[in-house]
Automatic annotation (TrEMBL):
Family named by the database record: Belongs to the DODA-type extradiol aromatic ring-opening dioxygenase family.
Top EC group: oxidoreductase
Name of the protein: 4,5-DOPA dioxygenase extradiol
UniProt key word Transmembrane helix: no
Protein keywords: Dioxygenase, Metal-binding, Oxidoreductase, Zinc
InterPro entries: Extradiol_dOase_DODA, Xdiol_dOase_suB
Pfam families given in the database record: LigB
Essential cofactor(s): Zn(2+)
Domain of life: Bacteria
E.C. number(s) listed in UniProt: 1.13.11.29
Organism: Geomonas diazotrophica
Domain Extradiol ring-cleavage dioxygenase class III enzyme subunit B: 26-207
Amino acid sequence: MPSRMPALFLGHGNPMNALASNDYTEGWRSLGRSIPRPKAVLCVSAHWYLPGTAVTVNERPRTIHDFGGFPPELYRVRYPAPGAPELARRLQRLLSPLDVQGDDTWGLDHGTWAVLCHLYPDADIPVLQLRIDETQPAQFHYDLGRKLAPLREEGILIVGSGNLVHNLHTYAWGRHLPAPYDWAVRFETKARELMLAGDHAPLVAYETLGEDARLSIPTPDHYLPLLYVLATGQEGESIAFPVEGVDGGSISMLAVRVG
């Protein structure tokens, strides 16, 4: 086991990527092959966004199909990875004195399984999810990510699943735009520059970054998982973007690798 696992932010995009073979899914598969095999995966998904911080404690988390209007075959997908209740207890201690609830009613939502089914198609690595507290500001989530950083030294792969740019109001449903919106490109470019420079403060205070940020992040749920991942980074660690692209004009599929 290496001294430190990388951490990943994955732009998950359309749930149909779970069944697709495209540049994004091939990139995820390549990541799964190129990084060391983790002891477990801790995923912070945009789709578990409710009041309070919680962690899944299920021994066998269910596959949640938290969407509507998709083909029947997508609802038949199961990702039967085991849970990680012991790691959940470790996480609760790590984040103390914050009250982190143990939750056995949630499972793995599509923000988790639609990417992990490509990274680890055998579903043989334990997985747990951390709930994003929707009542808290961005700085709270970045600070939680800092507290999670020691898990990387213990063979745990921390994954944030969301999208850097996520505007469904402008998304080209059923159409293929020749190019992404200018504001989406400008915001992603700015965010990349800040990440490469190790300058996280403006990314945490993203609401101060102007109109491009407002259009790119109309709601914080898909953006906040990135802050958890960035916060786990150590001084001097490399930043890479192993998957790139914009889907439908306004969904960034950018992946960020820390370490």
